[in-house]
Amino acid sequence: MSWLSIKNLKKIYDQNTIVNNFSVDLSKGELVSIVGPSGSGKSTILKSILGLVTPESGEIYLGDKDLNRIPAYQRNIGMVYQEYSLFPSMTVRENVAFPLKARNSRNLVRLVQSGFSRNISLDIEHKVCHALELVDLSNHIEKKPHQLSGGEQQRVALARALVFEPDLLCFDEPLGALDKNLRMEMQEKIQNLQRELKMTMLYVTHDQSEAMAISDRIGILQDGHLAQIGRPWEIYYQPNSKFVAQFLGDCNVYTVSAIDRISQYTVAKTVLGTNFFTNMEGLKPGDAIGIRPEQLTLVRDSGAIHSEFAFYGTITTNIFQGSTVKVSVLLESGDNITVTVPANDASSFPNQGMSIVVKYDAGAIFPLSE
């Protein structure tokens, strides 16, 4: 049964449709990431869930609650933004306690201005301490935000979103301001918290690697609608369209001009030549095929290799990327193909101008729609 259910959500700004019949269902305790290019509607979907904007149409249910009928302040949804949005004059304790105090206050301005550490009840104190334990900040409870690193400030923001035990926790590009090492640390922290608390989380990011690292499922947003949703490996190795294949990581994509069948193989003609593939049911001329660069291998062309499962060409560039080398090969057809190979040592680097054979597994190539 779905815990968060969104059906046919639509939002228009200035006569431009930003979210277009978006639908998704999250199970309780699931972490789902929504990724997509800038302007595809990711943040607008979150704002609709939070009650910060009113959609033109569509349903949003959290459990059995129709959120469209509930004011934003009563929805019991936590939110973590890229900006930490901490009160600079308050301690860590006071910042995390704020949403609990705010629910019992009729004057938020006075609450912010007063500084309220002396008025925190034992119940609130217990909840604050527990939230800070979850994010490993118990030793920083009396510090002000300026005394914390960026990663620590983001953990305070996370504790503040957790402290009132939300029914849903949303994230909008939460790690964009952190450096690589801190991002990886926070990804692990969020994933561990989600598993420990069995909390339902909706995570919006433009970072595909981040989404694949932490998510139970990933949804790809295209022009305001859901282009595909599935487990990370499914989306990556079984994309359903050119857009999804090329948005989520590197992918070699080629249009099919002719099709034939021989035994268990589909024989497809592309700019690469005539090649043999499997798992190509329903493929027709005008469709496309794709293969990930890391699913290709390079073999020095000795002139003795002749195979239906290979392309032939010359290396034009190689880019060292740490654990791998990204190699561009100019094929005999005049087209390019990208291959990613392990960089075990400098002697393994393919050289520019080298004649090369690009080998592939027939089952690694997937069909793509427009």
From TrEMBL:
One of its GO terms (molecular function) is ATP hydrolysis activity. Pfam families: ABC_tran, TOBE_2. Coiled coil: none annotated. GO terms for cellular component: ATP-binding cassette (ABC) transporter complex. The keyword Metal-binding does not apply. Keywords: ATP-binding, Cell inner membrane, Cell membrane, Membrane, Nucleotide-binding, Translocase, Transport. Residues 4-248 form the ABC transporter domain. The keyword Membrane applies. It comes from the Bacteria. PANTHER family: SPERMIDINE/PUTRESCINE IMPORT ATP-BINDING PROTEIN POTA, THIAMINE IMPORT ATP-BINDING PROTEIN THIQ. This is Putative spermidine/putrescine transport system ATP-binding protein/mannopine transport system ATP-binding protein. It comes from Candidatus Kentrum sp. FW. The lineage of its organism: Bacteria, Pseudomonadati, Pseudomonadota, Gammaproteobacteria, Candidatus Kentrum.
